[in-house]
Amino acid sequence: MRYKVEFIFMKNKKINPVRDKKPKISVISNGIKKANLPFDKMSEKEKDYVAIILEEVRSNFAVFGETLGGFGDKLELVRQKGDATFEEVGRIKGEIIVIKEDIVEIKGEMKEMNNRLDRIESEVLSIRSEIEMLKMILTKKVDIDYVEKLEIRLRTVENHLKLSVV
After folding, report:
1. For the chain (length 166 residues), average pLDDT per consecutive 10?
2. Alpha helices in the chain (DSSP H)
3. What pTM was estimated for this model as a whole?
4. Second label for 43, Cα 20 to 30 Å away, from 28, 91, 106, 158?
């Protein structure tokens, strides 16, 4: 209830530009600034109002600080996960380099195998043509053998008939 009364008081307050100047700010130490408020010129209600506002600001800062503390823990967790992820990426990158080297080696071996297969294919074709020639020769050879056998039989028959022409 006190807050409502104080806020209403400040709402209805008339601002005097001469009296309500911005307070002078002085630096105490370590960069901390302190406002020189004219407390001696304030009424009790104004002092109470300033005290309430300061208390509320302190309370808000305390809550804000606690929240930041929680974020600090979360930030540290995120940082740790980021570091772990970075390390994992580095490990994977190393593995990828090894895999690339293996692929280059395999490509070389495949090229060599293809060359060997090409030589084998040409050798098989050569052997195939030789087999075809041998088949033809054997076919002729069989015919020659058959003719020779027939000649022998013919001579036998001629000798038997004595028709031999010498």
Report:
1. 40 49 56 66 83 89 81 84 93 96 96 94 92 85 81 85 61
2. 2-12, 44-161
3. 0.41
4. 28
